[in-house]
Amino acid sequence: MGDLLKGISSFRGAVFPNQSALYRKLAREGQQPQALMISCADSRVMPETITQAGPGDLFVCRNAGNIVPPFSTLNGGVSSAIEYAILALGVSDIVVCGHSDCGAMKGLCHPELLEPMPNVAAWLRHSHAAHSIVCRAYPDDLSESDRVRAVAMENVVVQLDHLKTHPSVAAKLATSEITLHGWFFDIETGEVQVYDGAKATFTMPQEGEPLPVAVTGRDRPHVMPQIAAMLAAE
Asked: Are 44 and 187 in contact (CB under 8 A)?
């Protein structure tokens, strides 16, 4: 706690004075973040640092395993953050960001580690599909580190699928007002790989080229044109 208190003192004395005008503006006008980022609570993964975002740029929701539970009538912190970001703040981009050496994914690979943590085990049921994919579709001779990495990457895709079950997200996708992104942060190298939904693979973004995206409204087929044609024919 001593280090945290020193950090607060440093912020107040050295950082805040140079950004006081921005903070006053944010306090007066409210926030208008560019995106919602759903990332892991791992202390090594800092969304604002990775993206070099400033105050007011990102609306961040962090939890163990960067999980998005499928929508249900049960209230929860992640579901509430998604709904608020879209309907109250009007974000047009949502990022699900996984990372290397993820403890949650290690727990999926080794359930015995979760025996003393029943709440964590229950939470990670939302990632079981990612573990099943790796067990069934990947080579059996993967190293331990490669297996955890593969589960973490597949988990990003699984959580993107869960994200599309939320009514606020589904409605915005139907009208092409929102884009979903899947990222993977490598702690050791600092690299961020981006999920390309069109190619179903993670890739390194290239400066000057369009950023690959996981899901856009245009990717989502819906029956609106068919219904309109049927009504016109009546």
From this structure: yes
Task: Pick the closest to residue 181 from 150, 151, 211 (CA basis).
Answer: 211
Buried b (16+ CB within 10 A) or exposed e, 122-145: ebbebbeebbebbeeeeeeeeeee
Which parts of the chain are beta strand (E)?
35-40, 58-63, 93-99, 179-185, 192-196, 201-203, 215-216
Characterize the bridge pairing of strands 58-63 and 35-40: parallel
Q: How far apart are CA 99 and CA 50, in angstroms?
A: 12
Q: Give CA torsion, residues 137, 164, 126, 80, to 10 deg.
A: 160
pLDDT in tens, 53-110: 999 999 999 999 999 999 986 678 999 999 999 999 999 999 999 999 999 999 999 9
pLDDT tens digits for range 15-37: 899 999 999 999 999 999 999 99
